[in-house]
Amino acid sequence: MKFKKGARYLFTKEYDLEGFMEFASGQGFDFVQLGYEAPLKWVGEISKDRRKRIRALAQSLGLQVCVHSVANGVNVAWTNSRMREESLRQIKEAIEFTRDVAADLITVHPGWKDMYGYRYPDEAYALAIEGHGEVADFAANHGVRIGVENMPPGWTSLCVEPKEAKAMIEDIGRENVGLTLDVGHAGILGAETIDEFITALNDKIFIVHMHDNDRQRDQHKALGEGAIDFDQVIGLLAQAGTNAPLCIEAKSPGDLIKGREQLEQILNRLGHNSAALE
What we know:
Layout (H helix, E strand, L loop, with lengths): L4 E5 L7 H10 L4 E5 L12 H14 L2 E5 L12 H20 L4 E4 L6 H5 L1 H20 L4 E5 L12 H11 L4 E6 H5 L3 H11 L3 E6 L19 H10 L6 E5 L2 H18 L8
Parallel strand pairs: 1-2, 1-8, 2-3, 3-4, 4-5, 5-6, 6-7, 7-8
Helix pairs in contact: 1-2, 3-5, 6-8, 9-10
């Protein structure tokens, strides 16, 4: 089984969207996940002409593109109705951007329990399901799939355990909704949890986020600098027949390069060399 390797760049102003794409292409990545959020994107400032240029650049570089929706302050489970409406609006804006750059996949966060949602978790969950259903229908009309991302453990978090992710995706009940499997988040719960995610949702895993940690906190370390066994992760994906693209998340260009090198070594060692894009 061949896997595509991609890059998502976090927490820096060093590259704009186009610069990041050129960097990723030069470093041998097969695809990029563009963050529809600061610092790679300042909300509301990507014109239609620039979107066309991004699409043309991706084609010229031979890069596939997917998108990570705005997450800062956005919550489909807000109990404050006006804040929730604005969250849904911004996610829909990110979906339009996804379509405009000729991408067909966007990652979204599942929502979280605010101070009232924490007291009334069933109501918060119902708001999340309703909101995801609304944006999923909007996305379907734009030819876009949605990967709901599993979150690290925390008192506000939704969609942490495999059974929670499976239930959320089933409750949303849309064909274009699946999972963005975040290995770093799942790994905090233990190696067996990664296996459980893959077993429970292997046919609905749209993309895999790859980053490392000490299994205690969500650190987004470069691959190989933490305690997660990525040989095991790749082996489990291959065994399940889950040929989802592998997206490295990192805090710096250097960590992205380290991650790519580490991932290539693993893929070569296991006989799953990175696939050329079709």
